[in-house]
From TrEMBL:
Functional summary from the UniProt entry: Transposase-derived protein that may have nuclease activity. Does not have transposase activity.
Location, primary (coarse class): cytoplasm
Keywords: Cytoplasm, Hydrolase, Metal-binding, Nuclease, Nucleus
GO molecular function annotation: hydrolase activity; metal ion binding; nuclease activity
Source organism: Dreissena polymorpha
Cellular component aspect of the GO annotation: cytoplasm; nucleus
UniProt protein name: Putative nuclease HARBI1
Highest taxon in the source lineage: Eukaryota
Homology family: Belongs to the HARBI1 family.
Subcellular location: Cytoplasm; Nucleus
Domain called DDE Tnp4: residue spans: 151-299
Cofactor or coenzyme needed: a divalent metal cation
Amino acid sequence: MADIERRLRRARYINELFPMDRRVFRDRTNPLETLSPMEIRERYRFFPETILFLVNMLNLERATERSCPLPPLISTLAALHFLATGTHHIVTAGLHGISRSSVSRAVKQFTDSVCLHLNDFVFFPNIENVQRTVQKQFYNIAGFPQVVGVVDGTHIRIQAPSANEDDYVNRKGFHSLNVQMICDATFRFVDVVAKWPGSVHDSRIFRESAIRQRFERGEIDGLLLGDSGYGCKRYLMTPYQNTDSPCKERFNISLCRTRVVIEQAFGVLKRRFPCLHYGLRVKPDRAAKITVACVILHNIGLERQDMFSRTCEDDTDQPHVVYEGDGSGNSYRDHIAESFF
């Protein structure tokens, strides 16, 4: 008996000198209750109501073998903080009282879940009245008729991939994805293609895209506007390289003033989610999903009036284009320039 007591005293003495690491349950406080709405929006890019909407929509409950899984709200906040800052996971982990690996899993689960709702928030309107409203909004910008969208590509910086590294080096000399997007006059994105390496030209991405096939089949009534990197088509207007008449010069001015909407939309998107501006330290396929998730969140913010949006008056009646020609893009462009400019 005395020997047992002596051993217990020795064990307690050793534990006092060399305490063993014990599992610590951190207090995961709810930032939505401790921060003001503006502080929440600055940190997570959305007001509390929209964040709760995302939590309910995504249903991020995750089964785990451990006794304390990460709550859906904390997973959402950690992912939004990463998208809003582009910082290292260890910074987001320290801010929310979780581990770095938990942040990594939260970002992956969150972006995958958001991407499942792509067709719910990023789509071309098929309703005729909606298309007419979009055309009027574009017409009020610079007087270009029957525009339903503007198209362009933007480069999202990524880390050098281990496979086919040269394909991802763009014309500016850094590794990137070339992401094609189309937006309307209110900065709402109606199409996104995020799968091509940075070395691929904009014209090829559009040529291989599904949206081009829809225009070719006549499913969408209206015009796209693009820069000189695209080929002029019956449904895609590009600027003249040489303006030998005043009407062609006015055509170019109107097209450029209207097409600048896509550049402004890129700026709004990347200012809201700076991770797209600073670069993504992930593999190309994961970078593509993060980019698409940011586009969807951008549209959700517009839909819920939770971000800056451009207001367009739609009380101006735009002229209707009546064309009888050979159907080529160049001749149709000449017809628009001579008839309306």
